[in-house]
Amino acid sequence: MRRNRNQDFESTSNIEVATSLRAKVTKSLEGYLGERLAVASAWACMLAMLVRTIVSMPGE
Fold first, then answer.
1. Using one digit for the tens of pLDDT, what is the confidence trace for 5-53?
2. pTM of this prediction?
3. Three state DSSP letters for 1-60
4. How far apart are CA 16 and CA 43, in angstroms?
5. Sign of the CA dihedral 51, 54, 59, 60?
6. CA distance linking residue 54 with residue 60, whole number of Å
7. How far apart are CA 48 and CA 58, in angstroms?
8. Residues of the domain holding 25
9. Transmembrane residues, as ranges (predicted)?
């Protein structure tokens, strides 16, 4: 009986550690991807403005 309780505690502890680790990794990954997305969005906006400016220039 006592051995089963210890095993249950160990498995619960492992699940908690895995959940905690997954939350930390997910949070850091979201931060990294959010930063990359913001940079990509800024570049896309600048590129779109450049294309619009070139297209709207009067032809020769």
1. 555 555 667 778 878 888 888 888 888 888 888 899 999 999 999 998 8
2. 0.48
3. CHHHHHHHHHHHHHHHHHHHHHHHHHHHHHHHHHHHHHHHHHHHHHHHHHHHHHHHCCCC
4. 41
5. negative
6. 13
7. 18
8. 1-60
9. 37-55
